[in-house]
Amino acid sequence: MDITKEIFGETDQQSVYAFTMKNDHGMEITCLNYGCIITKILAPDSEGRLENVVLGFDSLEEYRNHSPYFGAVVGRVAGRIKGGSFIIEGRNYVLPKNENGNHLHGGFKGFNNVIWEAKVLEKENEGSVQFTYLSPDGEEGYPGNVQISVTYTLTNTNELVISYKGKSDQKTLLNLTNHTYFNLSGNLRRKITDHSLKIKSDSILELNEQLLPTGEIKSVEGTPFNFQHARIVRDGIESDHPQILLAGNGYDHPFLLNTNHDKEIVLWDEESGRSLTIETDEPGVVLYTGNQLDGHFKIRGVLSNPHLGLCLETQGLPDAIHHPHFPSIILDKDEQYSSVTTYQFGTL
């Protein structure tokens, strides 16, 4: 296992570093101490060819100017919070409204836009980069001083493990995820429309016109949201299902997982032979098929367009604070927040 560190850029008079972990089989993961951004994952295809399977940039300026959360950790709360406010113990907390009158992915200064402390950890068959950040009381309107750690670990079995931990000195909200856009074709050779996907989920959250959960939990049976048996992503994107049209001709929906750490999410690309198996202890995963990507910037020479990548954001359910029947995302004072998601890269 080899881990290197190099300067990636500078912001607010602070250096941004890129850390590259390379395992004994040549698989590489590069991540930044800015936003915990994963910029590259070089994974083998069925012929052993290593190519990048995530969307990202080669400069900090591009991340700051164009990135729709490429590869970043988002928080304090992933997803949307209706009206940019919530109530805990009778007190109303007002958050920045950074999308259509709602609060999205932690606000203007979410975890994706801050410098994290970074430490390299090495063991015999794995290497890790541990990022830590103290989010002060009142940051983006949230209560509590929250100490966060996010650890990326690459193993010699071509597995990426993301471990999240957090603790607050006040009752607050916390719901973290990683917002990597995957494309298993390699080096953005093709869109993700012909990727196959399987999700062990029999229900989704219905969304309204602002892409906020209505509170209704809908069965996937007989709909383009039924991934209990593998299906081509294109099938749903090209359907006329009202929820698909609502999200901009694609998916942007939370799926409730039936099981955990049981190969509950599997994505693969038949042509390259690459596969990705995701396991998590979170109750849900948001499938987003890059519907809002447009052509006003390039991603390493490739014009950004809808469906160039897809996200599988393991997390608590969006806007859970306004829906008591959803699993709670409230973190009590001195309670330990902990979440683990693994990404196993393989071949068919």
Automatic annotation (TrEMBL):
CDD domains: galactose_mutarotase_like. Pfam families: Aldose_epim (PF01263). It comes from Metabacillus arenae. GO terms for molecular function: aldose 1-epimerase activity; carbohydrate binding. One of its GO terms (cellular component) is cytoplasm. The active site is at 179 (proton donor), 313 (proton acceptor). The keyword Lipoprotein does not apply. SUPFAM superfamilies: Galactose mutarotase-like (SSF74650). InterPro entries: Ald1_epimerase_CS, Aldose_1-epimerase, Aldose_1/G6P_1-epimerase, Gal_mutarotase_sf_dom, Galactose_mutarotase-like, GH-type_carb-bd. Pathway: Carbohydrate metabolism; hexose metabolism. Belongs to the aldose epimerase family. Beta-D-galactose binds at residues 179-181, 252. Keywords: Carbohydrate metabolism, Isomerase. This is Aldose 1-epimerase. It is an enzyme of class 5 (isomerase). One of its GO terms (biological process) is galactose catabolic process via UDP-galactose, Leloir pathway. Its EC number is 5.1.3.3. It catalyses: alpha-D-glucose = beta-D-glucose.
